[in-house]
Structures are given as structure tokens and as C-alpha cells.
Design goal:
147 residues; alpha+beta; 2 domains; 2 strands
């Protein structure tokens, strides 16, 4: 399966959490505020949900706490904010343009001409991109590939 074939859902959410947001499910034993599992950001900070780590959660239960990036627009906006922080906005916009409008139409943000310039409709398509399309573009912008 490749990024283009991946459907919105928990698998995509977990991939976004790990590869874009820097969140991974880690086992900390009793050292993490006396809980067994907790989500952790790439920089080592704990990722809190509702102010605390999940209490006595299994890895599967902890994964359920990952935001629904691929189906919730507000969560997808968090992904876009992270892309801006990582300074991959041009790559992201190029990938989103291709996903939303198709490779044969429009021009990319890096100036590569593909057919013709944006129409009003194509611009609106970008604004109305679904959470799934935004997540797919984020993964492509960072060069994430599936085996």
C-alpha cells in the first residue's frame, strides 16, 4: 500500500502522529506518573490528554487517544501548524495542490507549471480540502513512504 491508497482512519492517524507530529506510544513502566503507557513527543516531553497521561492503559488503549487527524478538520489544522513549524509549507502546498486538483491541472507553489494556473474553483478546492487530503499531503511533503 502507498500513501495514495491509504484510507482515512486510525492507521493514517497513527502514521501522522509518529511521522509528522512526533508522537509515539512508549512504555515507561511505573516511572511515568505511576502509569504503564503514555504518549510522548519526539523531544521527550509527555503528550498530555485532558491534563494527564492515560492511567493503566495498554498500548492499544493509548493509541486510541491519538487525535483523529484524518477525519477531524480541527485536528488536521494541527497537522498544518506542525508543517509550518517544520518549514515544509511549500512542499505541503505543492502536494495538496496535486492531491486536490490533480497533477494535470494548476501550478505548484514551487513554480513548476503543470498545465495552467489556478482557477477560482481550484483555489476553493484547496481551501475545502478534507482532513484526509491534508494528512496525505503532509506525509508526502515530508517524503514519508510506506513499504
Amino acid at each position: 500500500m502507498n500513501i495514495d491508497e491509504m484510507q482515512a482512519g486510525r492507521e493514517m492517524d497513527a502514521l501522522i502522529a509518529e511521522k509528522v507530529m512526533g508522537i509515539s506510544v512508549q512504555t515507561f513502566g511505573d516511572t511515568c506518573y505511576l502509569v504503564n503507557y503514555c504518549l510522548k513527543k519526539e523531544n521527550g516531553d509527555l503528550y498530555y490528554f485532558n491534563g494527564e497521561c492515560p492511567t493503566r492503559a495498554s498500548i492499544e488503549e493509548a493509541k486510541k487517544l491519538i487525535p483523529r487527524y484524518s477525519t477531524d478538520l480541527a485536528a488536521a489544522w494541527e497537522v498544518e501548524e506542525k508543517i509550518i513549524q517544520l518549514d515544509f509549507i511549500n512542499e505541503y502546498l505543492e502536494a495538496l495542490q496535486i492531491i486536490v486538483n490533480g497533477v494535470e491541472r494548476g501550478w505548484t507553489m514551487t513554480g513548476i507549471i503543470i498545465g495552467h494556473t489556478y482557477t477560482v474553483e481550484q483555489t476553493i478546492n484547496l481551501v475545502h480540502a478534507s482532513p484526509e487530503q491534508r494528512c496525505r499531503a503532509a506525509l508526502k511533503a515530508l517524503g514519508i513512504e510506506l513499504c
